[in-house]
Specification:
Elements (H helix, E strand, L loop, with lengths): L1 H37 L3 H32 L3 H35 L11 H20 L2 H31 L4 H33 L1 E2 L7 E2 L2
Antiparallel strand pairs: 1-2
Helix pairs in contact: 1-2, 1-3, 1-4, 2-3, 3-6, 4-5, 4-6, 5-6
Length: 226
């Protein structure tokens, strides 16, 4: 029935748009948290913590609207994957916002003390995590399956980078006992960046599944769904 199909298309477009709005806010929180760290701007960190509630609200909205679409239209095949992937992506976006909030809180703690030069060591993993996140959203928004399929390599690169950085920071802590708490904060930030990369990789995997009906989670290559 044409009017039902049109209504479904409108509802699906609105659902995807909500996810993209949520991704824009999450991107801003992520950037602001690191800017607050690098520039010792605690006011910006407070702003990140305050805005996290808005991301939580959007996640609930996407979940509710997604369920309404499933109940109302009973979509099948690619249409159902589009709805489910939107709900799953919103969950990963909420987790990325949570990690950004955790970074902002650690940044506030660091900003309250003396300058720690090793803070700048976090710049490379941050840039890589941000690029990974934005590429995952581009893959979702544009239906770019080729891009989505490449992002697991960036996630692995980020894992190695943050792991090596954490080891360096542990070594620094053993040599300067007065700054142990500061180095611990930096290690936690590095781990948060790694987790953000993991969630971005999840978004890419869900986008690929939506468009290709292939589950690439936990694999080195695509495996067709039965």
């Amino acid at each position: 029935m044409p009017h039902i199909s049109s209504s479904f298309d409108i509802a699906l477009h609105a659902l995807k748009n909500d996810v993209l709005v949520m991704s824009s806010l999450t991107d801003r929180l992520f950037q602001s948290a690191l800017e607050g760290l690098f520039n010792r701007n605690s006011e910006l960190c407070d702003h990140v913590v305050a805005e996290d509630d808005e991301v939580d609200t959007l996640e609930k909205q996407v979940d509710q609207n997604g369920l309404n679409v499933l109940i109302r239209f009973h979509p099948v095949a690619s249409e159902m994957r589009a709805v489910i992937s939107a709900m799953k992506v919103s969950t990963d976006l909420e987790r990325i916002a949570d990690q950004s909030t955790a970074i902002a809180r650690r940044a506030k703690h660091l900003n309250a003390g003396p300058t720690v030069r090793e803070v700048q060591w976090l710049e490379p993993p941050y840039r890589l995590a941000l690029a990974l996140f934005r590429d995952s959203i581009r893959a979702y928004a544009d239906g770019d399956s080729e891009l989505a399929l490449t992002l697991h390599l960036k996630a692995r690169e980020l894992d190695v980078l943050t792991h090596d950085l954490s080891k360096q920071l542990v070594e620094c802590a053993t040599m300067d006992s007065e700054l142990v708490a500061n180095y611990l904060d930096l290690i936690i930030v590095a781990r948060a960046l790694e987790r953000i990369g993991d969630h971005a990789a999840n978004i890419a995997e869900d986008s690929f599944w939506r468009d290709q009906a292939i589950d690439i989670r936990h694999t080195h290559g695509p495996k067709k769904e039965p």
